[in-house]
Amino acid sequence: MHFPLPWQLLLILLVVIIIFGAPRLPQLGKSLGEGIRNFKKGLSEEEDKPKLDKKEEE
To answer: Quick one: which of 2, 4, 19, 53 could link to 8 by a disulfide (CB 3.0–4.6 Å)?
Structure first.
């Protein structure tokens, strides 16, 4: 898998700043972090469900 080069990351950051504006970047980062956290929580809950179902059957 190809990781973006430093100049490519700077270009992406510049585009994001132009589109969203500098004041909204912290809010955007917080929203992204919460979304990732909720996604991981959902995955861990799905992994726990089959274990609980097997214990209930016994």
So the answer is: 4
The answer, as to whether pTM is greater than 0.90, is no
Degrees to nearest 5, angle at CA 24 with 40 and 33: 10
pLDDT tens digits along 4-28:
799 999 999 899 889 988 888 889 8
State mean pLDDT over 24-45.
Answer: 90
Q: Give the whole-angstrom CA distance, residue 55 versus residue 58.
A: 6
Count CB neighbours of 24 within 10 A. Answer: 13
Token pair for 21: 């504006």
Find the helix or strand (DSSP H, E) in which 6 lies: helix 6-20
How close are the terminal C-alpha atoms of the chain, in Å? Answer: 45
